[in-house]
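Run log, item B.
One chain of 356 residues. Sequence copied directly from the ordering sheet:
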Amino acid sequence: MSGIRFVVEKQVATFINPLKDNQLDRQEIEVRFDPLLGHQSVFNPDLKDKVSILFPETDEKYLADVVEATRPKCFLCDGRWKETTPRYPEELIPGGRLIKNETVLFPNLFPLFGYHAVIMLGNKHYRRLDDFPVSLLCDAIGICIEFIHKCFKADPGARYFTINANYLFPAGSSVIHPHLQLIGGSLPTTFQEQLIHHSRKYFEKNGSIYWKDLVAVEKNLRQRWIGEIMDSCWISSFSPLGQNEVQAIWPDKKHFLEWNDNDVESAAIGISGVLKTYYEMKCSTFNFSIFSGALDGFDYGMRSMMRIITRQNVVPDHRTDDYYFQKLLKNEIILLPPEELSQKVKENLDNCLKSQ
């Protein structure tokens, strides 16, 4: 029997509301608990009236002005990356960089881990979220996997890697030009360690793999189920860590060294479809992270998985969407119920699959 439990607790806030003619207002609050990690996400349906304040629509003119102002000095545009970006030692990467079509992998000038690479996502300085082609994402994720193989071969102590994205400055990017970041080393990141730890605890308690159980339960319920792309499974998160979170799970792949071309392509198709959905929802920024267990395979219970979320849209003087509630209390606010998000994403993923 599966150990998956979708726990929801209800609370009611009661007060005299000046926005409702000073009448007594009773608002029902839903607290959701992540089935693996236990973190809380909070949904108040009445927040729908505040969405335009919390997440104002993208100021397209302002964004266009920023794009044009930054293009001439962009170190990645017009082939400038050939002169401005660092290189890895020849013994790790012959030629110093990994290049595939319009994608280029090179070291971060200010690394945060022993291996910290930047991957240029094509030659275009700016892309709308409906303009991240599957082929481009395939090339970028493919060279990430190639880099991970090279790093682990050269340094078997570098066992933990993640593939990540910050897109546009409200999401934490310091440059407009689309890119990914890959980090790895001898230690997992904090959240990666939590995933590995709780996956192991689940296995020890239930005798089964959490990620396989989650896929089976969500597929059966159909409430947050989006679909399958080759060997990957896509759902909207029951208790998200950020706005509009979608999860991808590779239930048979413990770590990145087990990935093949189909896994890379499934990630690319899924990300492209999710970003198209975000664009239709009038979003302009995002983050994602792809996790795996230790490359030596010792993290039993863990499987490769991804979380992708939207962040604040691009507007002048944008506000951050993370404050004490998320950063310190480690709770998240739900504005669009995951059960509705899954239906929005499903259509775009189906279209992406049909076009391949």
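Observations after the first pass:
- The chain has two domains: 7-50, 54-355.
- The chain has a mean pLDDT of 95.
Flagged for discussion on Thursday.
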